[in-house]
Structure to design on (296 residues):
């Protein structure tokens, strides 16, 4: 099951980034090892929980500040320097919302999973490795020589 | 003919994208109202005449389905209610269409996708109405 979700997450990130944010993420698994020790401060974290009966799956995306600002600028057709932090967070939340919607469209055509509301915030401590540690399936992308990370967490209640 | 539009989405960036797409497609928008959720949209729809509603489904407080259910009970679903949503699952979309939505655009979307559904349901920006129903859309 996780393999399907992981593939769907990877595909959805590519689709959402390229269609609505005009950025092309290239899957780059080698980046994961390199990034682990780096500081998470300033990175944006987005997450949506999807649930069915006793199982909750978290879909996560992390982006560094420059990528997050560019995502917001591209979708809103504004200059990156003209954006405030709330606009960046709003665009980031919408990005993870679209990513999660894309995943469910692929893995759950029968609508048996319920999608929660997207959450996003700015990380202020810890390392990227610590952020990733809560996820089982982890993936990294290269976006114009800048990293984007994603992962899945699975919780049985 | 200028249209009166209500955009319902909890994301300010998405409301801005939809607004820009409408204008880039050449629609003359007389009034463009915005709501962050179904409850706000309902309040606006109770006091303002609107030709086109472009609404998300997943929203806090009152989601798009609840908005449609309430409007249907009141017999007040606007003639052109279009979903602009991350929801791509057919069952959920069919439920919304059964409640009176006329069509949908799945996020992420190309501006052309939104323009196409508007031209089918509202008419071309020059005002010429197309003789085609929702069966011409994705269902």
């Amino acid at each position: 099951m996780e393999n399907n979700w992981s593939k769907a997450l990877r595909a959805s990130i590519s689709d959402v980034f390229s269609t609505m944010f005009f950025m092309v993420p290239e899957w780059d698994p080698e980046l994961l090892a390199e990034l682990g020790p780096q500081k998470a401060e300033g990175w944006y974290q987005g997450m949506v929980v999807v649930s069915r009966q006793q199982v909750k799956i978290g879909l996560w995306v992390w982006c560094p500040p420059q990528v997050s600002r560019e995502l917001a600028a591209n979708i809103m057709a504004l200059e990156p320097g003209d954006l405030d932090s709330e606009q960046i967070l709003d665009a980031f939340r919408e990005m993870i919302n679209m990513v999660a919607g894309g995943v469910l469209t692929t893995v759950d055509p029968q609508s048996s999973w319920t999608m929660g509301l997207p959450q996003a915030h700015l990380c202020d401590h810890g390392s990227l490795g610590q952020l990733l540690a809560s996820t089982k399936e982890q993936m990294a992308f290269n976006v114009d020589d800048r990293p984007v990370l994603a992962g899945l967490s699975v919780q049985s209640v | 003919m200028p249209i009166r539009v209500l955009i319902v989405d909890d994301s300010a960036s998405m409301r801005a994208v939809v607004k820009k797409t409408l204008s880039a497609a050449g629609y003359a928008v007389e009034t463009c109202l915005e709501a962050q959720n179904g409850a706000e949209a309902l309040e606006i729809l109770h006091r303002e005449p609107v030709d086109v509603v472009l609404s998300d489904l997943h929203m806090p407080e009152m989601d798009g389905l609840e908005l449609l259910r309430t409007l249907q009970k009141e017999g007040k679903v606007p003639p052109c209610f279009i979903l602009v949503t991350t929801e791509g699952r057919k069952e959920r979309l069919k439920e919304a269409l059964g409640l009176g939505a006329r069509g949908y655009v799945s996020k992420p979307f190309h501006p052309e996708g939104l323009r196409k559904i508007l031209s089918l349901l509202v008419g071309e920006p020059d005002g010429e109405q197309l003789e085609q129903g929702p069966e011409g859309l994705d269902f």
Notes: The interface with chain B takes residues 15-16, 19-20, 72, 75-77, 87, 90-91, 93-94, 97-98, 100-102, 104-105, 108-111, 115, 117 of chain A (CB under 8 Å). Chain A is about 40% helix and 30% strand. The first helix of chain A runs from residue 2 to 20.
